[in-house]
Each structure stands twice: as C-alpha cells, then as structure tokens.
Amino acid sequence: MDSAADVVVIGAGAVGLAVARAMAMAGREVLILESQKAFGTGVSSRNSEVLHAGLYYPTGSLKARLCVAGRARLVEYAQHVGVGHRITGKLVVATEEAEVPAIERLFAQAQANGVQGLQLLDGAQARAMEPALRAVAALYSPYTGIVDSHGLMTALLGQAQAHGAQLAVYSPVLGGEVLGDGSMLLEVGGDEPMRLRARTVVNAAGLTAPALARRIRGLPVSTVPPAHFCKGHYFSLQGRSPFARLVYPVHTSAGLGTHLTLDLAGQARFGPDVEWLAAQAAADAVVPDDLGVDYRVDNSRAEVFERDIRRYWPGLPAGALLPAYSGIRPKTVGPGVPAADFCISGPAQHGVASWVGLYGIESPGLTSCLPLADAVLEALA
After folding, report:
1. What's the pLDDT score for residue 254?
2. How far apart are CA 328 and CA 360, in angstroms?
3. What are the phi and psi torsion angles at 249 (to 5°)?
4. How does DSSP classify residue 44?
5. For residues 257 and 232, what is the distance between their CA atoms, to the nearest angstrom?
6. pLDDT at residue 277, as a whole number
7. Which is nearest to 370 in space by CA: 162, 71, 137, 8?
C-alpha cells in the first residue's frame, strides 16, 4: 500500500517528539513513526533524567550551546505545562589533591560556556553542604536539576497532537530512497507494511539512526557517521539518601563517572558505568529489536560500584545497592576517543532537501531537546 505525508519524524523519543511538536506548531502536517509499542521506550527512558547545566562540553560546540540554552528553556517549559522537575544543584568533587586541577579546568570550561552561578569550594565548604561527602574540593553548579522524562515526553506528544500530529507505533522504517523531485519514499514495516512518500523526513531514531540512514538510497553514505554503543548500568540505593544534591566525581573520557542522582521522590541511584558493545550490532540494526541488547543488570557489578561510590561517600553501607536498569549511549566515536559533538546532518551537509539526520544524540540530548528541534527547523529552512 502506498501513502503520502508532509513531514515524517522517525523515532518518538524526547528529541523526536520535540521535533514533531516544533514542526506541527509551525503549521506542518506531521506523522511520527515509532518502531516500538509506545513512545519513549529507548534512550530517552534509560538515563539519569538530569537537567544538565552545560559544564563539560567544548565551548562553541552544539552540546555546549544547546545544553545551556536547553536547560533554561526546559525549566520554563516544565513550569508552564506542569512537568515534574526539581532544581537540586550538583557537586562535582575531587576526592584527592591530584584531581583539583581537573576541577579548576572544569570551572573555566563551564564559565566559558556561559553557565551561571558556579562556585569553587574547598573540602570544608563542600562538606558543609553535604556532610556525608568526602572531598578535598568541589565545583558547585546550583542550577543543575532533574526532570520527569516520561512526563516531559507526554507533554511534548500532547502538544504535537494538539497541533495535528499523529503517532503510529509498531511502524519501523526499514529503508527508502530519494526521489527525483527531492522527496523521500520510505519503506515502513509493521502489521500493515507500506511505502510512504514524504516531503520532509527527520531521522531521530536514536541508536539505529546511522544504520537506517545507510539504507536510504540516494543519501550520500559518506555523510553518515559510524555508530558506537556504550552501555551503562545503574544501581539504586536501599534506604534514604543522605544527599540533597547530585554528586559527580571528576569525569572520564567515556562518561561522567559513577555519579549519584536523585529521582523526584528523593530516591538515590548511581551510574552509569561504561561497557562498550560490539560494533557490528551498531552497524547492522535498523530497529532496536535487532540489537540483541540485554538490558538486565548483573548484581556482580555492585562490588565495582561500591568501590567507586566510596571514593566520595565512604559511609555507603555494605550491600545497600540494588540492580536498577541499564541504557545505551548512541555515540559516533569509539573507546579511547574524546566524545564527539551532536551531529545534525541537513541539506547543507548531504544535498538532499527532504532529509535531516540526527546522530550521536546522547547526553545532554534530553536537556537540549527543545533547541535541538529548533536546529532541525533551521537546517530545513
């Protein structure tokens, strides 16, 4: 069966839904295609739910600019539509003197990025804020917070639908081709397979976005970055957390360390760690079901988590960690390489007027979802 659409957004995570909302509010007719049974079941639902301030990213990068702008906009949006969130503040801690220069460099980086309200603290000042903390120095970010990611996605989808957008679940996009007039013909699977002609397509498929792009005939493969998957596990804390703020150790090249975050009920959770997955799965899978990822959390990892956590919280009780959940970061570079920037590949990059590909939208993608959507509209302008 053949059909037609104005705008197709592939993927109903936070970024895809933000794009659909922005497109619909701009007067476009939007169809959201989601391969799973519901929206927001992938990367957007398997993270720390942190509203990042923009501390870590290279100045001038998309991550830096969109995160700083996105945090402020997302807080305003959450207040306006009633999405659960809380500004907790965050301490990035040095647990030994050798780490203090890294804290100072991070302070300078964050200031260059335009992050407001930052404070450098000595160990006594940090412990005055969080008595259970072990630290010789810390960087305090007062405007970092947490957000209900499912509530956020529900609000984005609701506003998109209020402006005429439609969501089709169990509708995986398997491939397609660029037509002579610049439009796109998509091959959509599911219960009722069809070919769908679209004037504009936004690939917000998360983990499978690069593999899907390589199956679009007529789209230059050289403009599609590689896919690398980095799995992270989370553990939750039994009992009450002694911390009122988020606590992060000095970060590593692959992630931000085994940090402590809070949910809106005050429950503490720790993670993620870093486990690089086989590259072949990332290269071949078009729909998440093909990835073969085991999202279970092996309790044997608790020993390593406890060791890392006790560097900044010596009082962690033995056996207090419970396996919680895991997630995968969709990266465009592999282990041992500095983290890459967001990749927004539009007509200026590949020459196809109807296509925008979003690749490597890992953290701070949730925080940045609203300005990311604006960037997609700008790429198509």
Report:
1. 44
2. 11
3. -75, 170
4. G
5. 10
6. 84
7. 71
* 301 neighbors 234 (Cβ within 8 angstroms): no
Q: How far apart are CA 2 and CA 20, in angstroms?
A: 22
Q: Name the strand (E) or helix (H) holding 97.
A: none
SS3 354: coil
Calpha distance 119→243 (Å, rounded):
18
**Ordered mean pLDDT values, 10 residues apiece, the chain (381 residues):** 90 98 98 96 94 96 98 98 98 96 96 98 98 98 98 98 97 96 93 92 96 96 93 96 96 68 96 82 59 85 96 96 95 92 97 97 97 98 91
Phi, psi of 351 (to 5 degrees): 80, 5
Tokens representing 45 are 């639902």
Q: pLDDT at position 190, please?
A: 77
Structure tokens at 248: 């992060």
What is the reported pLDDT for 253? 47
- What pLDDT was estimated at residue 192? 79
- Tell me which amino acid residue 190 is: G
Number of Cβ within 10 Å of residue 360's Cβ equals: 24
pLDDT value for 89? 98
Cα 132 from chain centroid?
30
- Tell me which fold the domain 2-46+150-225+340-380 belongs to: FAD/NAD(P)-binding domain (3.50.50)
Provide the edge-to-edge strand list for the sheet that holds 145-147.
50-51, 145-147, 85-86
- What CA–CA distances, in Å, run from 188 to 4, 10, 191? 12, 10, 10
Predicted local confidence at residue 250, as pLDDT? 86
As a whole number of Å, the end-to-end CA separation of the chain is 31
CATH architecture of 88-144+227-331: 2-Layer Sandwich (3.30)
Pair of tokens at residue 142: 């007062």
SS3 306: helix
Phi and psi of 75, rounded to 5°? -65, -45
- Strands 166-168 vs 30-33: parallel, antiparallel or unpaired: parallel
Distance from C-alpha of 206 to C-alpha of 124, rounded to nearest angstrom: 42
Domain ranges of the chain: 2-46+150-225+340-380, 88-144+227-331
Using an 8 Å Cβ cutoff, are 376 and 344 in contact?
A: yes
Q: What is the pLDDT of residue 193?
A: 86
Cβ atoms of residues 262 and 302 within 8 Å:
no
DSSP sequence for 25-84 = HTT--EEEE-SSSSTT-SGGGSS--EE----SSPTTSHHHHHHHHHHHHHHHHHHHHT--
